[in-house]
UniProtKB/TrEMBL annotation:
Residues 176-189 have a biased composition (Basic and acidic residues). This is DUF1508 domain-containing protein. Residues 172-215 are annotated as: Disordered.
Amino acid sequence: MSPYFLFTSCMSGVSRRLLVKSSSLRTLTGIGGELGSRAMRASVRVRKGIRVQRSRFVFFAVPPQRETDGVGAAPGIFWMLVSPNNRPLGRASGCHPTYGECWDAVVCLQQGHERLRVVESTAERTGQWCWWAELDRAVVAVSSRSYLRGRECTYNVERFLEAVPKAAIVSGTRNTARDGRRARDDDPAPRWSGRTPPTGIRRLSHPGSATGTPR
């Protein structure tokens, strides 16, 4: 087969041409068609809702910690809500003694999601934004991180509230450490617990009605 000039490139005054045979061109065309077919099939799967991962609740086991006085802290289980691309959306406000109790807490959260009351707050020391969610006046969920701007905090609150009722619950637990190492499976234990929220400025008293416009 006779060769064809596929392209000409000029560099440092030297002109180079790439010669390919017609059979190679057919091979390239076949590869392009195959990739296009794969992309189309993937698009169809997304439209039909096939194999599309959704947000999910995952559980983390916190090992016991030995304090400086020799008294060990009790282990616990906490949940975290993650998006389809594994981005943390929120977490439990504290550790539960058993895996079963933590699972029940997630079920209660989903069943009572319409009664959730979300509060946005700024930290007095850093000025960064965070949020927590109350169910029947008990803090049940907190933000997984702090935010520099109020609108970022509000955006993540909305993503959390959207995901809660539809998220899957994944069985089993993952191990985590108490030393604060930031890794996908090594997130530290939740910062808040019980009915006492962190101090700060309240900006959002209900998911649907903000009391002020975040900065």
